[in-house]
Amino acid sequence: MNTQQEKRQRQFDKAVEEWKRKVSEQQTETERWQKEARNHAAECYRIKAQVDEAQQTIEALRKDNKNLNGTTMSSCVVS
User: Fold this and answer.
1) Domain containing 43: what range?
2) What angle do CA 13, 16, 17 make, to 5 degrees?
């Protein structure tokens, strides 16, 4: 009877260890995916900042172009 209990206890211990291993693997994988997600989010923020900067540059160039066109047209009318 004692041997039967010991056998069950060993099987239980073995199952517990297997589940601990699985949990550990899942935690490691989760941490890896979270790190990758943070890296992607940071990359998105960098790209958004670049796009915003490019849009500001485009807007500034459009204003300059409009002003230059206005100056050119004024010069043509005055001449």
Assistant:
1) 13-79
2) 85
Give the separation between CA 56 and CA 66, rounded to whole angstroms. 15
pTM, whole model, 2 decimals? Answer: 0.62
- Residue ranges of alpha helices (H) inside the chain are 2-78
HSE-CB at 43 with a 13 A cutoff on CA atoms is 6
Cα angle vertex 63, ends 58, 67, to 5°?
A: 145
Flag whether 8 is in a domain. no
Band (71; pLDDT cuts 50, 70, 90): confident
pLDDT tens digits for range 5-49? 999 999 999 999 999 999 999 999 999 999 999 999 999 999 999
User: How many distinct structural domains can be found in the chain?
Assistant: 1
Residue 4 lies in a domain: no
